[in-house]
Amino acid sequence: MNGAGEVSDKVSGDTRLGPGLLVLVVGPSGAGKDTLLAYARARLEGHAAIVFARRRITRAVDATEDHIAIDEATFAEGVAQGRFPLHWRANGLAYALGPEVGEAIAAGRIVVANGSRAAVAEARGRFAHIKVVHVTAPPDILAARIAARGRESEAEVLARLAREPALDAPPELRILNVDAVDAAGERLAAFLRGL
Fold first, then answer.
1. Is 134 helix (H, G, I), strand (E, B) or coil?
2. Helix (H) / strand (E) containing 77
3. Burial level of 135, CB count in 10 A (0-12/13-18/19+)?
4. C-alpha to C-alpha distance for 15 and 19, rounded to whole angstroms
5. In this predicted model, what pLDDT tens digit does every residue of 11-68 receive, in sequence order?
6. Which pTM does this prediction carry?
7. Where does ATP bind (predicted)?
8. Residue 34 labeled ligand binder
9. Phi and psi of 131, rounded to 5°?
10. Within a 10 A sphere around the Cβ of 141, how many other Cβ atoms?
């Protein structure tokens, strides 16, 4: 193992992170990714093979997301030292998956992480096995959900909605998150159970 849990798959000679599976849950701000991840985490408690990642984000911790707050210097140092198996920037913030993600993947586990559509291509190059779940909702619902967080100005909400990176390939699962949390959350949990 080297770097952020990088291993060579001895069977295929692949130097991407493996043999485990990374499931990236992506979609626009306000789609409800964190809500669905929290639902799935609760429903899958006790499934030792499935790990839910806590991202590092250059933002203070709040009640809307279970993440680890880091500053820009810590992020830059982690990137420079290769501690993060995946990192990206979006909406004026820096995001990273921590070294524990690489370790879980190296141990053959399934890691489920809130990701970014803009980071999917990079993830495909870094991980031997990846599946993408795309969560979305209509624009008016997205705007209302982002505004309800109370973290951003109206201009910042509009900027988030304008950011629309395309996926590099169709996702393995699409969830239109407009119904009750348990309806969409159960679709995600069922998908993860079947992996």
1. strand
2. helix 72-80
3. buried
4. 10
5. 455 789 999 999 999 999 889 999 999 999 999 999 999 999 999 999 988 766 779 9
6. 0.86
7. 27-34
8. yes
9. -130, 145
10. 16
27 carries a ligand binding annotation: yes
The answer on whether 32 is annotated among ligand-binding residues is yes
Q: Is 31 annotated as a binding residue?
A: yes
Strand extents, DSSP E, the chain? 21-26, 50-52, 56-57, 68-69, 86-90, 93-97, 110-114, 130-136, 173-176
- By DSSP bridging, strand 21-26 and strand 110-114 are parallel
Beta strand pairing call for 56-57 and 93-97: antiparallel
- Look up residue 97 and give its two tokens: 């998956």
Q: Which CATH number fits domain 21-55+109-193: 3.40.50.300, 3.40.1400.10, 3.50.30.30, 2.60.40.10?
A: 3.40.50.300
